[in-house]
């Protein structure tokens, strides 16, 4: 079907309307003489419409006289007719050719360069090395040597392990992969201290000396795992005495300073507050939106797409502005403004007290959820409605949550300090 349409377009065809007492004879005689007609339709009793190739129009005149019918051309389609119209408008043809050549010429240069994949290496350093290798804005694409730019990036930037340069239209993308270096472990003396108050549930020491045990109550700043390991204790009196000849000179016993490491989990309590009105008034999005694209030249705006007037009475607008990249010191005063206009409507929502209590409880739990650290596990939660003396159109709920979480954090210290600045033990926090 596609080849048939393409061949008809190249050769050219016309749509003819056949009038007469018996247009069917016209169709039958044309088919008998090998003239191909297609898309035959009958819009009226004494009229028929069909498509025929351009080189078969002349033989149809003899058939029309034989069948006492006449036909006329209603539409001309194909390359010959297009060429005839174009020949009468030489200036238009010349302008079209010039536009295509200009578009091809402009698309043969690099206009935008973007860098992806870099985290530690600054983008300006990558662009500087690429510029020295021949990659600049405005350079012809046939002069761009992508492998040479990749080699220059890997050679002059030692922290890059791989680089790729890809040309997509007028945009060049530089993708880099940085080398991964093993992180050096911090071995300076440090304690593990509490970042919040809680009741110790589990202590797992990897390095250091445990300063608390299960069941202890701690406050923020208190040392949980000490980075000061005390010296071993003196031998007790029950041990047999050592002969004087085998006795060694006494060595002063000193504590060992280490970088404490371990896991300390504790029970922590949180409080949250939430409220929900019984009658709520506000605005919400309806789901309908229109997008308008404008080209702004200085203070003048030209609408390229979208409606001239926003069809909504109340709406909110989100606007994004795109500017062409600067060329040397030239900044074009042209902007592409894309605005999304979303319709809003006013609403009034009436809730019963049970629904408002459920919503207020969810909001109270959401307020607590924002305070919970990653990895915390909720073991208990309780919701209590706050009752006031005077009735009001508002339901207030207070939430109590108990979680099991890790509360330790590293706290460096200087060896030789006389005091560890350990906070005194506090009374257990109130439980709901």
TrEMBL record:
Residues 229-253, 408-432 are annotated as: Disordered. It holds the Pfam family YqfD. Residues 229-243 have a biased composition (Pro residues). Keywords: Membrane, Transmembrane, Transmembrane helix. Coiled coil: none annotated. The keyword Repeat does not apply. It comes from the Bacteria. The chain crosses the membrane at residues 91-113. This is Sporulation protein YqfD. It comes from Desulfofundulus luciae.
